[in-house]
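Researcher: For the annotation table, I need structure tokens for START domain-containing protein 10. Please keep the output clean. Sequence:
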Amino acid sequence: MPVQVPDDSDFSSFKDQCLSADGWSSCYSKGGVTVWCREEESRTVQKLKMRIVCKDVPAETLYDVLHDTSYRRKWDTNMIDTYDIGRLTVNADVGYYSWKCPSPLKNRDFVTMRSWLPLGNDFLIINYSVKHPQHPPKKDYVRAVSLLTGYLIQSNGANCSTLYYLTQVDPRGSLPKWVVNRVSQFVAPKAMRKIYKASLKYPDWKKKHNPTLKPWMFPEQNTLPCISALELTLQRADSLENIDESGVSEEKTHHSDDEDT
């Protein structure tokens, strides 16, 4: 299927999903983080929504943190690797991201098309999985599928903001129930708090690391090679290997619970 760069209606729809309560049930609320779950037709597809209020963090800073790949290497301890592949438009690109799963589960990776839009007091970033001919699935990873993942940042004044994170992912594996529960009760809330903590430290870090370099705000700074949407196709889950990890017990897993950012 052809790939389409999101338009204003796609961003509007994503924002509505972030703010709507219809069809969502709260599955975690503690320490300033709320997580909602949504039952999908497919049991393998997880749909989660999270919210955290970030005091002392302007919306613009959160937006920069979520874009800044160099800084992400400092705070995202679940990340194995990430890199940009190419740009489609001034506000859309294609990139790669891989992340650690608790051993002995296999690690997952994604190739996604990402698009972003600052809109008054709102800042949005959304992505979905695509196929790129030069970045096929890797032997040591399970290529997962993002059906729709993204962030909505809303300004609550000069020095406060609210961050929403919504994700609908097919992990391409028959995962045990405890993994799904762990994501909503532990992994997701911890990730939101990490972003918040990272955002508090970002201004000082950025002053020492290319302080004027923000290609997500200034397209003329973007040095990525241009690629055409015609080079890409929609990544369909049924074209990827589906592995059965449902028998993995929680006792056998090794968790990375590093809280450092």
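Researcher: And a one-line annotation?
Model: The chain has a mean pLDDT of 89.
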